[in-house]
Automatic annotation (TrEMBL):
GO terms for molecular function: DNA-binding transcription factor activity; sequence-specific DNA binding. Keywords: DNA-binding, Transcription, Transcription regulation. The keyword Transcription regulation applies. It holds the Pfam family HTH_18. The lineage of its organism: Bacteria, Pseudomonadati, Bacteroidota, Sphingobacteriia, Sphingobacteriales. This is AraC family transcriptional regulator.
Length: 289
């Protein structure tokens, strides 16, 4: 399942869209002087800086990089690394099929976090404890690259999965900074409940959520809007739309399959919901991406 590559050279590549042939690839690169320029991908990519420094341009935003920085590149992002001193990178590339192979506790939330991380510029690690964890995981992944024993592939999977959990937590921290400084912990619990039950409409009714958290319906509505600036049902609809867009953009699922997944009666009902929220129908959106 793994594609493993060693690139000890400096290349210039004009912008083009790249794909991967396996669910996950591990790539080691050492770049001496020339930049890796203007590449766009159809998959996710974690870029860890082992050594060196320079600049990264990400969707038009320029940031410096140094050793122990970690970058997340999502599908369709455009990026360039301009090297100042010789730099070693470890690249971990993965697609949606890799995410689907594992029994994540909250796959939808993880996938949505990754797909909507384009607002994060530069190093995604801001918490010291996360930096320590990530560096340890990267060092172990590097040590396992040349090995081919019986359980080595499973070990790499576990290491990459642990890395993805840390990344998701870091992205969540960025999102929480958009909330009021005195946000209530109950709000985070309610949001997590919504993400956990996004496929089950009956569990997302206001009366059901209010009973789950032992608060009145009227208070729940006021409380939720005060925390994030939008109504409870608007938040649920927008989150569902983001997941549906991800299905249409990054998978080969048919519209009826997406409708079944999100508990719509059929593709027509899903299309009506999608057009109301997005302003375009499913076919128009799918053709545009």
């Amino acid at each position: 399942m793994f594609g493993i590559y060693f690139l000890l050279l400096c290349i210039f590549v004009p912008m083009r869209k790249e794909n991967i042939e396996t669910p996950v690839e591990i790539i080691y690169e050492k770049v001496n002087e020339c930049p890796i320029r203007d590449r766009v991908y159809s998959f996710f990519q974690l870029v860890f800086v082992i050594s060196g420094n320079g600049y990264q341009t990400f969707n038009g935003n320029r940031n410096s990089y140094q050793a122990d920085d970690l970058f997340l590149l999502t599908p369709e992002d455009i990026h360039t690394f301009d090297v100042v001193t010789t730099t070693e990178f470890l690249l971990i590339r993965f697609n949606r099929s890799y995410l689907n192979e594992y029994d994540w506790k909250n796959l939808n939330h993880l996938e949505c976090l990754l797909n909507n991380a384009t607002h994060i510029n530069g190093n995604i690690l801001t918490v010291r404890s996360d930096k320590v964890i990530v560096k340890s995981l990267i060092e172990t992944i590097l040590q396992s690259i040349d090995k081919s024993d019986l359980f080595n592939e499973e070990l790499k999977n576990y290491l990459i999965n642990a890395l993805l959990v840390v990344v998701a937590r870091s992205i969540s921290c960025y999102q929480l900074t958009d909330l009021q400084e005195n946000f209530d912990k109950r709000f985070v619990n309610i949001v997590n409940y919504i993400h956990d039950n996004i496929y089950t409409p009956e569990r997302l009714r206001t009366i059901t959520i209010s009973k789950q958290f032992n608060i009145s319906e009227s208070y729940l509505g006021r409380f939720f809007k005060a925390q994030c600036g939008e109504t409870l049902q608007d938040y649920i609809s927008k989150y569902k739309i983001r997941l549906i867009r991800n299905r249409l953009k990054y998978s080969d699922m048919r519209i009826n399959e997406v409708a079944d997944e999100f508990n719509f009666n059929d593709g027509s009902h899903l299309n009506k919901f999608f057009k109301k929220q997005s302003g375009v129908n499913l076919t128009e959106y799918k053709n545009s991406v």
